[in-house]
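Sample pair:
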Amino acid sequence: VRIYVDAVVNHMCGAAGGSGTHSTCGSYFNAGNRDFPAVPYSGWDFNDGKCQSGSGEIENYGDIYQVRDCRLVSLLDLALEKDYVRSKVAEYMNYLIDIGVAGFRIDAAKHMWPGDIRAFLDKLQDLNTKWFSAGTKPFIYQEVIDLGGEPITGSEYFGNG
């Protein structure tokens, strides 16, 4: 049996998620001021200032910048162009590789720039040799909904997985 993790790495909780310890695993967070000390992430690690829509949300799926730099259904959008954010994503994925994960389904990949995904994937180690042959890379699947008619296509992500 192989384990593939559904990795949600584009965003955190909703902007109106409040604060407290009602998060997964009970770690404290404050969505209002972008404080996620268990990671840690702070306001510097989100795309709030980068999004060019009036609301901070995706308003136009025909605009690749909004789709990739703005909030998807109010979820706080991580700034994956920052090496620190990329490194935290890779650190967690590498932990999962260490405990035997075979690969990842990257949720909402179309909401991230392909180069940003490549940058954190490049930081991943080979799979654990306790279960896999030496030099085996994790299997990568990226969720890119491409029904045609939108400016973002699945083929933009082929080099990553």
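The CA atoms of residues 100 and 131 lie 7 Å apart.
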